[in-house]
Inverse folding.
């Protein structure tokens, strides 16, 4: 009887030990497999009441696993709404914002200060869109803080934006590079 119990105990103990080593080496879909951060050139174009372009800098954190990925971007940019008519002045702006993306969807918030020769305005623009960090298509709705409407800026924004990396740090490999990642 003692011999049988000893064999059963040893068998259960060996199976338990084997199970622990298998669990440690098994694929975990929630374990991060990509963990990068980068400084980027940010370029964006789109349309409100007229065409606009903005250029700036951004910092991006990209993390991914078998479950999906997340992307966080913090940016600042200079905007211009060019005018083709001499009597209508150009509109300039500075904006800053943040975006959070995951599984091809994006949520963000822009805070902007815009001006031309006659007026100045502050805009708060929540936005959402689709994309994968490098290129995003977004829609935003701008809320004016002053209630003044500058000629070329509308409430609805449709835009295409890109974050082009020029310095990257891979946190998984502890590697830094200045090369393009695409």
């Amino acid at each position: 009887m003692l011999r049988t119990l000893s064999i059963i105990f040893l068998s259960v103990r060996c199976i338990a030990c084997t199970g622990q080593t298998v669990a440690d080496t098994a694929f975990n879909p929630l374990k991060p497999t990509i963990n990068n951060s980068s400084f980027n050139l940010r370029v964006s174009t789109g349309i409100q009441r007229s065409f606009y372009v903005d250029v700036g800098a951004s910092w991006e954190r990209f993390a991914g696993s078998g479950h999906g990925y997340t992307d966080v971007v913090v940016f600042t940019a200079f905007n211009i709404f060019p005018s083709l008519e001499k009597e209508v002045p150009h509109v300039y702006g500075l904006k800053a914002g943040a975006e959070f993306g995951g599984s091809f969807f994006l949520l963000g918030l822009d805070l902007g200060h815009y001006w031309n020769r006659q007026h100045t305005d502050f805009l708060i623009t929540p936005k959402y869109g689709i994309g994968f960090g490098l290129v995003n298509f977004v829609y935003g709705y701008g809320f004016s803080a002053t209630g003044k409407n500058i000629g070329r800026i509308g409430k609805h924004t449709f835009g295409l934006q890109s974050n082009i990396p020029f310095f990257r740090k891979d946190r998984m490999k502890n590697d830094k590079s200045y090369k393009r990642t695409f």
